[in-house]
Write a structure and sequence with these properties.
Elements: H1 6-18, H2 31-50, E1 56-60, E2 68-71, E3 75-78, E4 84-88, H3 95-113, E5 118-119, H4 120-126, H5 128-131, H6 134-148, E6 157-158, E7 164-167, E8 170-172, E9 178-180, E10 188-189, E11 198-201, E12 207-210, H7 213-221, H8 224-227, E13 232-235, H9 242-255, E14 259-262, H10 267-278, H11 287-290, E15 296-299, H12 302-307, E16 316-317, H13 320-330, H14 333-336, H15 339-351, E17 353-354, H16 367-379
Parallel strand pairs: 5-6, 12-13, 12-14, 14-15
Antiparallel strand pairs: 1-4, 2-3, 7-10, 7-13, 8-9, 8-11, 16-17
InterPro entries: Meiotic_Spo11 (IPR013048), Spo11/TopoVI_A (IPR002815), Spo11/TopoVI_A_N (IPR013049), Spo11/TopoVI_A_sf (IPR036078), TOPRIM_Topo6A/Spo11 (IPR034136), WH-like_DNA-bd_sf (IPR036388)
Domain Spo11/DNA topoisomerase VI subunit A N-terminal: 97-157
Pfam family, one: TOP6A-Spo11_Toprim
């Protein structure tokens, strides 16, 4: 088995040698500091009211590419001079948002003060009429994190996870619950409090991020994690949630093993992989805690479609949305700085076709787990 994964072992040695040069995670902020920052915001509002002025909150514009820059060792990070949006209480277009931020600051203050936690879903259902939708609350939580310059995990507000994980992994939750992810038939939900995980035990040689839940289940059905090599597989079920990204980052920090991505050969799959690797524009303020810049593209590569002669009936022609997305990706610095990635994106754009991971089953039922992945891992077929 050791011979079979020579290239993976070599890669792991290279990663270990470069760990000292890697950027460190953003440190947690103390409870006292979080409380102090909330108090400072409220104090500023009170002072404005006492002067007869309309209070204003200034929050970073998280939907502007002009506020982020690409740093190869981290990913998408904030620029030093980010543009801010003024949220006024006396302006009809922003008064509701101003009120929601104050409400959430009140909730967070109580949670941090009492050293307790709540999920975003709990907070939403405690006042459905006020927040209007879960999506609105989600945005407000991120805005508050930016406003206070505090990592989201320090706000004591947890997100309900949508991701799943399986493989050679055991750990303890913050409350002492032991979690064993070694089941060969069912995956384990990713923790809602990744930061509280401790006592991680694993003999995994690598971590495999898969785009879809269906692919993860296929790997489990074929006993991939034990039959092939000790490993950990994780999915964010499409566009990853923060907890799935935190989990990949935490495992990378703890285990120091290679991290591979298995996504569809389409623009959407490439973007998902880039979010794990380099982060997203809207969460650039937490890049140091969420990104894993060493993620490697294992497949499905656009060039694999021809290399493995994927049947024509399994290949999908580009849509207008695909064209727009691929053009957007090609303009991003993190694609342009990697010649091998850029060549694959150019291949996809030239051929104007895409294929899902499941298309490999049209070659042979077990082609993915018995041929494609073993060969990729044995001979270093990643970029």
């Amino acid at each position: 088995m050791a011979e079979q994964f020579t290239e993976v072992d070599r890669l792991r040695e290279t990663l270990l040698e470069s760990l000292e040069k890697a950027d460190k995670r953003q440190e947690d902020i103390s409870r006292e500091d979080v409380l102090s920052r909330i108090e400072n915001v409220i104090q500023t509002i009170v002072i404005s009211v006492s002067k007869g002025e309309a209070p204003v909150l200034k929050v970073m514009n998280r939907s502007s590419w002009t506020n982020v820059r690409f740093q190869k060792s981290v990913g998408l990070v904030l620029k030093a001079d980010v543009s801010l949006m003024a949220i006024r209480c006396d302006c009809p277009s922003s008064a509701t948002k101003f009120a929601l931020i104050l409400k959430l600051l009140s909730v967070i203050y109580k949670l941090v003060q009492s050293d307790s936690y709540a999920t975003k879903r709990d907070i939403y259902y405690n006042d459905v009429q006020l927040f209007g939708s879960q999506r609105t609350l989600d945005f407000i939580v991120d805005d508050v994190s930016c406003l206070l310059k505090v990592p989201r995990r320090s706000l004591h507000v947890l997100a309900t996870s949508k991701g799943f994980i399986s493989g050679d992994l055991c750990y303890l939750e913050e409350d002492g619950t032991k979690v064993d992810c070694n089941s060969s038939s069912a995956a384990t939900p990713v923790s809602s409090n990744v930061n509280g995980i401790r006592n991680i035990v694993s003999s995994a040689k690598f971590i495999l991020i898969v785009e879809k839940d269906a692919t993860l289940q296929r790997l489990l059905d074929d006993d991939f994690c034990t039959r092939l090599s000790p490993c950990i597989i994780i999915t964010g079920k499409g566009m990853p949630d923060v907890n799935s990204r935190l989990m990949v980052r935490k495992l990378w920090d703890e285990l120091h093993v290679p991290v591979f991505a298995l996504v569809d050969a389409d623009p959407h799959g490439i973007e998902i992989m880039c979010i794990y690797k380099y982060g997203s524009m809207s969460m650039a303020f937490e890049a140091h805690s969420l990104t894993v810049p060493s993620v490697l593209w294992l497949g499905l590569l656009p060039s694999d479609i021809q290399r493995y002669r994927v049947p024509e009936e399994s290949i999908i022609p580009f849509s207008q949305a695909d064209e727009s997305k691929i053009n957007s990706l090609r303009n991003r610095t993190y694609i342009a700085c990697q010649p091998a990635w850029e060549r694959e994106v150019q291949t996809m754009q030239r051929l104007k076709q895409k294929a899902e991971i499941q298309s490999l089953a049209s070659i042979a039922p077990h082609f993915l787990t018995r041929v494609y992945l073993p060969n990729k891992l044995r001979y270093g077929g990643w970029i």
